[in-house]
Hints:
Blueprint: H1 4-26, H2 38-55, E1 59-63, E2 70-75, E3 83-89, E4 109-111, E5 114-116, H3 120-135, E6 144-150, H4 160-166, H5 168-171, E7 175-182, E8 190-195, E9 197-206, E10 212-213, H6 214-217, H7 224-233, H8 259-266, H9 280-285, E11 289-296, E12 306-307, E13 310-319, H10 325-339, E14 345-354, E15 357-358, H11 363-377, E16 382-386, H12 391-399, E17 404-411, E18 423-425, H13 426-443
Parallel strand pairs: 3-6, 3-7, 7-17, 8-16
Antiparallel strand pairs: 1-2, 2-6, 4-5, 5-18, 8-15, 9-13, 9-14, 10-12, 11-13
Helix pairs in contact: 1-3, 1-13, 2-3, 3-13, 4-12, 11-13
Amino acid sequence: MVDAAAIRERLTAVLPKVTDELVELVAIPSISAQPQYAAEVARAIDVIAAHLDELGATRLDVVSAGGHPALIAHFDVDPALPTVCLYAHTDVQPTGEVSQWTSAPFEATRRGDRLYGRGTADDKAGVAAHLAALGAFDGKPPVNVIVLVEGEEEMGSPTLGKILAEHRDELTADLYIIADCGNWAIGQPAFTTSLRGVVDCVVEVRTLEHAVHSGQFGGIVPDALTTLCRLLATLHDEQGNVAVEGLVSSDEVAVDQDEATVRSESSLLDGVQLIGTGAFTSRTWTKPSISIIGLDTTSIADSSNTLIPMAKARISLRVAPGDTPANAWNCLKTHLESHVSWNAQLTVTNGESASPALITLEHGLQEKANRAWRAAFGVDPLLIGTGGTIGMIAEFQAAFPDAGVLGTAVSDPDCRMHGIDESLHVPDWEKVCLAEALLLAELGE
């Protein structure tokens, strides 16, 4: 029988130290997508390795498959016991305009129940949750534990598949706990059962060899930016549904949100309409979405009365569960090529991609997880989908098809992952730390 009270007491005792370690990690600008921060990604891995070594890891290796490093640590207990792999990532998104942050993005700042800073919620708190759970057992967990921390998740985990293949024996487990998903609400935990994939591309439109006078040629010669805008407008219908043919889409969802919640959590401006049709959760969980996430053209400050010869946009397509990145890419490319106006020159360059995933857990494991999270939060966890992408979950499923995967959360809808003033709800994070420790104890029974 799991002694939940004793585990809670031990977990509470280690939380101050682990909180300091989280603050230490947030101070490292481990932005994987920007080459100038490569050394910081490696430094974050080294800091985590030092903490795991202090906890008594029996084996510890920093590995690479041609990209940013990853960390594999082992806490070997007994080969007769189950093996659990605890996953999180230490790389973060770029900060955006630093001046818009209320406090410095790489200085963890506590305001009320929230800890602000880039990576607090996504996903350095996931790393810290693993440190806390192991710390509750003084580095001697009741099951064999593997800790895998990667430094490329925010880039789509481009070399993780190779790492899994090259280190298969060191990473084989019965259960993979992915601490990188989202809770339904503050105080309401959730396990993620589906995720969308992602495909993105850069589309370039050219109409002229060079800029020309807009008075002399405007009206007979198309400019590239207008042409690009017309093309981008074809990606959605009048209701805001994705208009690209051939993509997988579904309306089937078990739970839904109300409009007021969606508006509040998204910070939608008053009067702005929501887009798409069907249940709100289906629009973000089981249907594709397309967003324009970047634009290269002449700035207003540098503009003149000339026709712009070339313009670019970066398109992000979230791929619904049941679809594949290859199909989504082909459908998107075909749509763009067949809808460009005025026979303008078009170049479409494929970029990041990651697969969607459907996650199921064997009944006995699910019940153990439910009990652990119920004991920590006081309520049952919900089974939900998510609109985000964690491509490595599909890679884990492909590499270890007989193992279970549990998508757990340290974030909540108010955390502003990837955005300005990202933050972590500390009381819920502490409950996640406890829940993970309780689950390890459940699995060791």
